[in-house]
Amino acid sequence: MNHPPADNFETLAIRSQGERSAFQEHSASIYATSSFLFEDAEQARRRFADEEDGPIYSRFANPNTDELATKLALLEGTEAGIATASGMAAVFGSLAGLLKAGDHVIASRALFGSTHQILTQILPRWDIACTYVDGTQPDTWDAAVTDRSRMFILETPTNPGLDLVDLEQAAAFSRSHDLILNVDNCFATPYLQNPAPFGADLVTHSGTKFIDGQGRVLGGAILGRADLIDSIRFFARHSGPSLSPFNAWILSKSLETLAVRMEAHCDRALALARFLESASAVEWVKYPHLPSHPQHELALRQMRRGGALVSFELKGGLDQGGRFLDALKMVSLTANLGDTRTIATHPASTTHAKLTEEERRAAGITPGLVRISAGLETESDILADIAQAIGGG
Ligand SMILES: *Cc1c(COP(=O)(O)O)cnc(C)c1O
């Protein structure tokens, strides 16, 4: 990996590149191969014995997945990283690669739906228990600690409530109870927020969202402390959540434009949040960099900008929300987020439908909540479609 002469985000994202081949290609090439040749029996022995660096088999590592993981670790300010086939492979790897039977996890309640399923349906099969806490109430966290607690896992901003968890407080809490702090940084991306300098031990990403940013591929990554990543690498090497070289190449190339794309996403999201705040049909709007956000000060401290997601509820709740979604002409109705296309989602009936009504309430998901992922279309076109859908309701 060639490290550029400067440590600024855009330069690192563009100029950190794996070794070039004999062709001296300017842009990275794709290593679509499942295995790699050894020069002789002795080199094969050395590679398998970890006495010599170098590729063996693409389930273990590949130049494209290595480039992506190394670049993301640089952008997050962590010691090491590993690329995975999806964001959920990253979240699962960060848990299954480190925890054992009898361990206990403390989790901020507002988590991605599949993370919630892993913590409440899958890990308990292996006698790994979980206690939920309110991520916005740090003074309540101590009560969840047991002598088996090993990890604190959280997302900030939360999905889809857009509440924040104070990363500095989460790190202090984790340090004082000897917990591994594991932060899903998917919503913010490494451009808007870096949990590791605040004290996070692990950072996970779904590359599927803003890192790809164009709705093409699945991918993920786990970044963090070298000793933890070593354990997770052992787990991943033998259990196989490997990212394909092609998807790794897409994601690594996409990182080159992440900064400019996120600036443009944030411009549109902020304009939309301000518009919704001024619209009389809207009950409430949540956007981290609006002064009306209850944790606005914290948002300014830990997020470079407010992100691409805006959550709101129309007056008239669920019924009015449904009419709004059906009235949209350009904005896409889909469960994804982090695309060039602006997307509207109704979490209570889709992404969070498997939660009970009570679990949704606790996670801040009201029945009529609509989540918008601001895309990159012309700002006035996004606002016009949303305005006509509100007005036409
Ligand atoms: C989408 C998402 C994931 C899962 O990512 P996949 O690539 O779909 O597996 C995890 N966490 C958050 C916050 C997400 O938005």
**CATH homologous superfamily name of the largest domain?**
Type I PLP-dependent aspartate aminotransferase-like (Major domain)
Shape: globular
Instruction: Quote the distance from N terminus to C terminus.
Output: 54 Å
- By DSSP, the count of extended strands is 12
Secondary-structure element string: HHHEHEHEEHEHHEEHHHEHEHEEHEH
The CATH topology annotation of the largest domain reads as Aspartate Aminotransferase, domain 2
Strand order of the largest sheet: 1-7-6-5-4-2-3
SS summary, helix count: 15
Helix proportion: 25-40%
Hetero groups: pyridoxal-5'-phosphate
Q: What is the multimeric organization of the chains shown?
A: single chain
Query: Would you identify the regions where 5 or more consecutive residues have pLDDT less than 50?
Result: none
Supply the number of structural domains: 2
CATH architecture of the largest domain: 3-Layer(aba) Sandwich
β-sheet strand percentage? 5-15%
Radius of gyration (CA) equals 21 Å
